[in-house]
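Translate sequence into structure tokens.
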Amino acid sequence: MTDPTTDAILDATRASVAHFGVRRTTLSDIARLAGVSRMSVYRRYPDLTALIRDLMTREFGALMDEIDANVNGPDGRTRLVARAGAAVRALREHPLLRKLLEAEPELLLPYLLGRVGGTQRHGLELIARDVAEGQADGSIRAGDARILAFSVMLATQSFLFSAGTFEEVEPEAAFEELGRLLDAALRP
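Result follows.
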């Protein structure tokens, strides 16, 4: 849970990035949009990168929680596959991610090449839970649930971040293929 000032700062950041992009957004602009002092921003965030990180965690985490609550299925494997597909579809349409992918994809590289971010950790927790449930109900093969969850996340991320590079492939067909791939990989 965040406080109202932090929420206002994050909301202002989202609006500024959507309008101007990250490079043309300043902490001073954010403070003005949020209706707070610059020191209120600086006390919470040492720089714009830290602020963008928290914004991504809030926005994408909330989206994953919504999908988790609303996408169901009869067993763990079905739920996991459906949630992964729904997450890729929703994230590809999310205004913040679209802006970052279109204008400043280099900001996402650390999360693809060098570190696991807060949103990814949250996603891993949700996936690991579905894997454990699927193993318990017999719909997911035996194996280290943590490794299976990490593999699902990596495959899902590749469809999320690379789907736009395949112009000759219909996005929906690619998302359906992700579902088949995950289903086959997890099936006992």
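Note: The mean pLDDT is 91.
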